[in-house]
Amino acid sequence: MTDSPKRLFILDTNVLMHDPMALFNFEEHDVFISMTVLEELDAGKKGMSEVSRNVRETNRLIDQIISNASFEQIKLGLDLERIHPNKERENLHLGKLFFETEPMVAQLPETLPSHKADNHILQTGLALKLQYPSRNVTLVTKDINMRIKSSTVGLHSEDYYNDRVLEDADLLFSGWEILPEHFFEENFSKMKSWQEDNKTFYELELDETHHWYPNQCLLSANESGFSAIVRKVEHNIATLEYMHNFEQSKRSVWGITARNQEQNLALNFLMDPNIDFVSLLGTAGTGKTLLALAAALEQTLDEGIYNEIIMTRATIPIGDDIGFLPGTEEEKMTPWMGALMDNLEVLTHSDGHVTDWEKESTQELLNKRIKIKSLNFMRGRTFQNKFIIIDESQNLTPKQMKTLITRSGEGTKIVCLGNIGQIDSPYLTETTTGLTYIVDRFKNWPHSAHITLRQGERSRLAEFASDSL
Question: Where is the PIN domain (predicted)?
Fold first, then answer.
């Protein structure tokens, strides 16, 4: 390795455990992997978890680039672009991959134990910084404490940014927009309206100030109550559909009515068979699980659109063995499904005029039509005509989310529920979680919809606690 204007990125083990393709995400700059990282990858290759799979994929990529290379070639660096999946693409200019082929020694503070793997990586980084003073040497790690220690010993460090969907979670698509107060009054004369299959549609020409997405909800700022769904945008012409009102008792869904405007938006999409994918994002108490489960029961048991409801959620740590819990797959998952069970109890709550036999019959029917599955066993399966509810989806990586959604067969609807402010996975953030990823990637697809719920509807006690504590 020589002094070069290119930056030199030292990859921490957790970056490769998170994203094996990280090797190719530093453009023309060089990448360095220490012997400690190779040792940690070797230790993490066994198992069926997502992390273990990523480690094995990283090992395969490194083996591919290092095969048939002599020791002298390895010392000089190996061209990354020759094993890039899109190496045939034009203008692909990647840097080189370097390994720790000789001991890298630098002085660390005496307070840092030299036997720890993280400190060995810091020592390697400092040695590279001393050896190549004209190069910008940067440690890339997803470990916050590692970045803090790196800064205290004088080594520049950064988070792994390539997996970020957005720069800021506040920029995430909310699924709805409040229009100016007199928007529809001012544009009514220019709007073309018609009815089709008991639905009312409007056509409106857009100017450059409006950028709407398919299935985005438009809400009036005044008290007119006019609300519509953007069904199509082509050549600056938007087709809007007047929204159903699920706040009325006559349009209740499995006995549940919308308590606020946001819940009404959600029910419009949950009850629409033309929408194959719905994501609901919101804090605890906004009604995500209750609405999804009510819509699933209505369309499965009453309307017969789907033949089964599948409920699952991310167990943290995701992908770890649940075999220590007793019983079948469904019984093992039951402790993780408390929220879904609580909402199911609300939906099947009797008014006191039914017999025990009727209660047992209802419960038996629900047990036959509602299945609780573990994410661990979703790979390789295909679900036909199912209503799938994925709870706590903020704890899924983009890759895991892709694995789940690609399991859907003909006639299947998937509903993802989550709160990006409550992420339990240590290597995910609001901008890198699979829920944020899927909301951003699906917002242009006409068969998907997203709603961010902000208004809590649990109880006056919960509302006061949320506001005051």
Answer: 7-148
Pick the CATH number of 8-158 from 3.40.50.1010, 3.40.47.10, 3.20.20.70, 3.40.640.10: 3.40.50.1010
Domain 8-158 and domain 261-468 have a common topology: yes
Query: Which is nearest to 118 in space by CA: 61, 39, 3?
Result: 39
Distance in angstroms (rounded) separating the CA atoms of residues 39 and 34: 9
**Helix (H) or strand (E) run with residue 37 in it:** helix 35-43
3-state helix, strand, coil split of the chain in percent (to 5) is 35, 20, 45
Residue spans per domain, the chain: 8-158, 170-242, 261-468
Per-residue tokens: 429: 């953030």
Q: What is the pLDDT of residues 394-411, one digit of tens each?
A: 988 888 898 889 989 999
**E strand map for 256-385:** 277-282, 308-313, 370-372
Give pLDDT, residue 285: 83
pLDDT digits (tens, 9 = 90+) for 238-273: 999 999 999 988 889 988 899 999 999 999 999 999
Whether the bond into 317 is cis, omega within 30 of 0: yes
Tell me which range, 13-17, 177-181, 203-207, 324-328, is most confidently predicted by mean pLDDT.
Answer: 13-17
